[in-house]
Amino acid sequence: MFTFRLFMVISFCSVVFLETAFSQTLIKIVDQNNDPLPNAVIEYGIPQPVINKSIDDRIYVMDQINKQFSPHVLVVPVNSQVSFPNKDDIRHHVYSFSLAKTFELKLYSGKPKSPVRFEDKGLVVMGCNIHDAMVGYIYVSDENNTYLSDANGEVLLTQPLALNTQLKIWHPNSTVGLTKHTLLTVDQKMIDNNEIFITISVNAPQARGSFEELAFYEH
């Protein structure tokens, strides 16, 4: 009986220790040159069904500033609304014919009358019909936990992250392709002092003649 109780105490302490050790985890993402990789999307968890499509009335924002979409990558949950204010002193014509969402905001300035709702999960690649160099991404997710790496290539998790957790990582310049993910399993080799280090191989951004060229590769 004494041995059994001692085992239970040790086991309980081990669980508490692991929970504490992983209660805050910093994920650091770098490219093949060991440079920080911003705009990487990390997903893990179990997809949750959308029970009531009108629950979340939050409106996300994809700005247009200096002929660029800002942010370059926007992560939103399924069924989110996104506004596309134009803060340039010229007009833009925003559109996408991605499988996850096809839409068009014809030539306009200022703020469009209504936001755009993104009902389905997937990647939405956007361009401007007037300025071909403009490209932006909206990543629509149905995962419990979806995060975007910051300018330092970092994601701070405030909840425990267990060993053997399956991670899906996406980046617009990833060598695996625009619509594919890098799949990883968290193991002890990736962890150092509550920090998880991940390397993603990326291609250098390529010059393109038009937004249609990029959209073609998406399909």
Summarize the structure in words:
Strands 6-12-11-8-9 form a 5-stranded mixed beta sheet, covered by helices on one side. Helices cover 13% and strands 37% of the residues. The chain contains 2 helices and 18 strands. The protein is mostly beta strands and 219 residues long.
Main traits of this protein?
219 residues; mainly beta; Immunoglobulin-like; 2 domains; five-stranded mixed beta sheet; four-stranded mixed beta sheet; 18 strands; 13% helix; 37% strand; disordered N terminus
Number of helices: 2
Please count the beta strands (DSSP E, at least 2 residues each): 18
Number of domains: 2
User: Which residues form runs of ≥5 with pLDDT under 50?
Assistant: 1-22
CATH class (first level) name of the largest domain: Mainly Beta
Rg is 21 Å
The CATH topology assignment of the largest domain is Immunoglobulin-like
- What is the H/E string? HEEEEEEEEEEEEEEEEEEH
Q: What is the makeup of the main sheet?
A: 5 strands, mixed
Summed over residues and divided by their number, the pLDDT gives a mean of 84
Strand content: 35-45%
Given the C-alpha coordinates, what overall shape results?
globular
Superfamily (CATH H level) name of the largest domain: Carboxypeptidase-like, regulatory domain
CA(first)-CA(last) distance: 64 Å
Class inferred from helices and paired strands: mainly beta
Q: How much helix is in the residues?
A: 10-25%
Q: For the largest sheet, list the strands in their spatial order.
A: 6-12-11-8-9
CATH architecture of the largest domain: Sandwich
